[in-house]
Amino acid sequence: MTNTHTLILGGVRSGKSRLAERLAIESQLPVTYIATATAQDEEMQQRIAMHRKQRPVHWRIIEEPLQLAAALSSVPAERCILLDCVTLWLTNLLLTDNCSLLEQERDAFLTVLPSLKNRLLIVSNETNMGITPMGELSRRYCDEAGRLHQEIAQHCGQVVLTVAGLPHVLKGDHL
User: Fold this and answer.
1) Which sequence positions are flagged as catalytic?
2) Domain extent at residue 23
3) What is the CATH number of the domain that holds 47?
4) Tens of pLDDT, residues 81-121
């Protein structure tokens, strides 16, 4: 595969993060893990703690909820980047008080993405396979996520959809 960027989509608990972690280990490169989650409640704090515990201790961790392009740009090219998760990042941007931040950070991310020479594993929740949600913010989130996934997929040599722990390659080489 000439383009070493992989987008891994799936529903909640579909196995997408586990697949990305396995691929990061298999890359045999030093790994930088970029986490976008924020601990706004006790349940999310527990999720984050569980993820931290499961990760190899030698991985470099960057916790960045908003400025994803800057975080990605800071990683040397000889490292594998595991980005988990784009939809949490999108949520963080949608919930800020700065109305222009989403467009600004989204554009910066999409600009830096094709220039990255790293092995890049991008994890994101596929949210648009059900009914149209009620509420303006929920619909905007789904619309933004759908458009963003389409644009990310254009820049990736491989796109994988995980369902029940089973990866389905949509674009690119088989796993």
Assistant:
1) 51
2) 5-171
3) 3.40.50.300
4) 999 999 999 999 999 999 899 999 999 999 999 999 999 99
